[in-house]
């Protein structure tokens, strides 16, 4: 089991300890990280943005695509909760915590939701025929957001780096599977 591999555990611990030291000694920066983690990149904020996209698709009578996006987002949320329960990885524990979180650590729900929401947004832009410069701008925004989510969660001491990496990989894989499934089933028929 990877969670017991000593070099990986040492790397996780080293990264978390270093960032936690900074979080404790830089309260201003820690407050900024909390705002981004708890409001800007909160999973419910990202799900709300996806809900707006789904509503827009449904209003344009793109029923299948709207439902496909909604189901993909719901599967992502369910998958992360099931994996948290199955894996049961403990979160980092600190004598002087700067933040707290609930449920098990792996995978990071924030990181997985950011990868799913960002990936679906880019996929929808591509399907809609967005211009290349808009796709690049969106890709930069999504990349910064997905990376930022991961950094804030480890910086605030509520996740190990591998929890974040796992969330990113699972979220990306889910979006890739959803996009491939949609292309195979519906785009080929047109």
Structure commentary:
The protein has 190 residues and is an all-alpha fold. The protein has a single domain, classed as Vanadium-containing Chloroperoxidase, domain 1, CATH 1.20.144. 77% of the residues lie in helices and 0% in strands. It contains seven helices and no strands. The chain has helices at 6-25, 27-40, 43-59, 63-87, 109-127, 132-155, 161-187. α3 (43-59) packs antiparallel against α4 (63-87), α4 (63-87) runs antiparallel to α7 and α5 (109-127) runs parallel beside α7. It is globular, with a radius of gyration of 18 Å. The N and C termini lie far apart (45 Å). Pfam families: PAP2. Keywords: Membrane, Transmembrane, Transmembrane helix. Residues 65-179 form the Phosphatidic acid phosphatase type 2/haloperoxidase domain. It comes from Streptomyces paromomycinus (Streptomyces rimosus subsp. paromomycinus).
Low-confidence stretches: none
N-to-C span: 45 Å
Count of structural domains: 1
How would a crystallographer describe the biggest sheet?
A: none
Cα shape: globular
- Which CATH first-tier class would you pick? Mainly Alpha
Number of strands: 0
Return the string of H and E elements: HHHHHHH
CATH fold category name: Vanadium-containing Chloroperoxidase, domain 1
Chain-averaged pLDDT: 90
How would you summarize the topology of this molecule?
Elements: H1 6-25, H2 27-40, H3 43-59, H4 63-87, H5 109-127, H6 132-155, H7 161-187
Protein name: Phosphatase PAP2 family protein
Domain Phosphatidic acid phosphatase type 2/haloperoxidase: 65-179
Transmembrane segments: 65-83, 103-125, 134-158, 164-183
């Amino acid at each position: 089991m990877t969670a017991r591999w000593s070099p990986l555990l040492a790397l996780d611990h080293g990264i978390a300890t270093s960032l936690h030291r900074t979080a404790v000694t830089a309260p201003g920066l820690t407050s900024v990280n909390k705002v981004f983690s708890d409001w800007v990149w909160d999973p419910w904020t990202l799900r709300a943005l996806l809900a707006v996209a789904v509503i827009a698709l449904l209003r344009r009578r793109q029923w299948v695509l709207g439902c496909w996006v909604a189901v993909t987002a719901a599967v992502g949320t369910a998958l992360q909760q099931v994996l948290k329960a199955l894996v049961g990885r403990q979160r980092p524990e600190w004598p002087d915590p700067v933040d707290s979180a609930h449920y098990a650590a792996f995978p990071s729900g924030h990181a997985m939701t950011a990868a799913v929401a960002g990936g679906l947004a880019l996929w929808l832009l591509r399907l809609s025929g967005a211009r290349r410069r808009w796709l690049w701008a969106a890709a930069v925004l999504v990349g910064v957001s997905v990376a930022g989510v991961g950094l804030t969660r480890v910086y605030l001491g509520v996740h190990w780096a591998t929890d974040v990496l796992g969330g990113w990989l699972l979220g990306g894989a889910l979006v890739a599977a959803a996009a491939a499934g949609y292309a195979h089933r519906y785009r080929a028929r047109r």
